[in-house]
Amino acid sequence: MSIRISLDAPPEFYTNLDIISGRVILVLNRAESIGNVIVKLEGESRTALTVPSPVDRDDYYHARPPGGAMGGDVITENHKILYRVFQVYPDEGGSIPLQPGMHEFKFNFKFPLNNICHDEKAMSALLGLGGIGSSTGFRTMDGTKQLMLQHVKSTLPPSLTGFPQEAEIRYYLKVTIQRPGFFKENWRYQVGFKFLPIEPPRPAKTSQEAFARRPFTFRARAPQHHRKSIFGNRSPSPNAEDPNQMPPNIEMSARLPFPSILTCNKPLPLRIIARKLAPTTTRDQQVYVTALEIALTGYTQVRVQNLENTEVTTFPIFSAPRLSPPIALFSSPSDPVDTEFEIPQSLWADRRLPNTVAPSFRTCNLMRRYDIQMKITLSWGMQPPGSSISLAPGRQPIAQTITLPLKLSNVEVFSGIAPPPELLNSVSHGTNGNIVGGTGVAHNFGVQNPRPPQLPHRHNPPNLLPPQAAQQQGPQQQRPPHDPLYPPQLGTPANAMFDDAPPSYDEAMADQLAGPAARPAYSGVTAENAPSTMPAQKS
Questions:
Q1: Taking the domain 209-221+243-383+396-414, which CATH number applies?
Q2: Which of 40, 86, 118, 169 has the fewest beta carbons under 10 Å from its own?
Q3: 101-115, 142-156, 423-437 — which is least confidently predicted?
Q4: Under 8 Å between Cβ of 368 and 299
Q5: C-alpha distances in angstroms, 71 versus 30, 48, 167, 424, 489?
Q6: 3-state DSSP: the chain helix, strand, coil percent, rounded to 5?
Q7: Are 523 and 128 in contact (CB under 8 A)?
């Protein structure tokens, strides 16, 4: 016996509104009686943290998780952010014993927009969907356990690993083949895949910029004189300032278009600008950029109950510990005050965000946010190779070097997968179903219904009113006789069969739209089918 799942033309990763389809291939060596063949599409966001010890001074005043957990205990939290069930066997033809050979069962799912664990009705319905005594005959997840956790409504988060024993987000397909019989165990098989969500609607482009700036003034140089003889004049104190020369005073700033949005696998739309704050008189006051480092810093906030921990990950974008040749700021010392010089963007124009960078997201127990950190090294008094600047005798400068840090906070990273045009067009008509993107800002996709749907016209029997009210209405207010199909205070026929609840707006919208076509490279999961590194969850 062997089981495997074969996906139909699997992409590098899936996204919202995609259809994932394939076949369950079962090879039997002998005839078998099979009860049900169930395929599940699941996504999990799992976190685990260690309870701090009470004797640890730094963590003594931290909040303790409920349930009597002691210091050193590992507590876990598992959120079922995606859960779909598809019964592929038996079909409408009924169940028949399977003969030796290869058997195929087709399945298909469509990825929703948002997570499912926040929906109390959906979680509660899972309790009665399967299990002993149910009409389906197969077991499903007990959704009541999810009701005991804290949830947020958000877009499905991306696949994420890299934090062993602490946090991971995984998506997978699981097939269960049930075998009737007390001593026969069920056959199971699962396969993982990568997931990257679509991005929320981008705001309209403006001329505004987010910036971080830092002014700086070099130390004034001391005048230097040559001694004529051993009995001649002494050199002045090294702390004395040269009255004939003012040190350069500049301001470095880093700018991004506002709102600050980066795109996965795309270059940074970053500008680094120097501004002159004080006049200069001589050419030896030239300032050079000798080193430059640009990095994207990600902060992953892990939460388990009321314990929290933040993991910091650095993604280098551009690193030049020694620029050759150095970049001279301002072309002439006679440039007026407030003259700006922009460092050439060609240095980092071809440096894209690494494909291991996940977009900003927020889910129930995990959150990822970003900022950009830069280090700019400036030097005054140096002569770069090949320089033709000739300095006056006795004015040989001592080079001063300073490294200025700059930080751009509140930077969001988008996946680069644009939503379908139909979804974007619905934004202009209002909001009803919505998607929460980034670090928790609600981005609405949906059409607002200005009024609730109208109920179908039906006759109201006169016995719904008390006799006194019926007499006050008069003969012109008499209502039609009682309709036996619509008893009083009952909105459905007595012999009507109750179907499944109508789909939500998000589900209805997802069924009508196709998944996006263009998508960037993403490798946020090192091995989607590798064993989980998370500790076992206690029941």
A1: 2.60.40
A2: 86
A3: 423-437
A4: yes
A5: 53, 14, 20, 49, 57
A6: 10, 35, 55
A7: no
